[in-house]
Amino acid sequence: MARPTIPLLKLHDLEPGQLADCFAQLAERSRGQTRDGKPFFTCRFRDARRTASVMVWADSPTYAACETDWKPGAFFKLRAVFGEHERYGPQLDLKNIRPATDDDKADGFDPTAFAEASRFDRPVMLAELRTLTQKHIADEPLRRLILSLLDRHADALLNLPGSPRHYHPFAGGWLEHTLNVTQTCLLLADKYIPHYPELRPPLNRDLLVAGAVLHDFGRVLELDNGVPPQPTVAGRLIGHLFLGRDLVRDAAREQSDVNPQLLQLLEHLLVSYLNLPEWGSPRLPLIPESLILHHADDLDAKLEMYVRCLTRDTADGPFTERDPVLNRQLFKGREV
Question: Which of 66, 133, 195, 296 measures 20 to 30 Å from 109, CA to CA?
Answer without folding.
Answer: 66
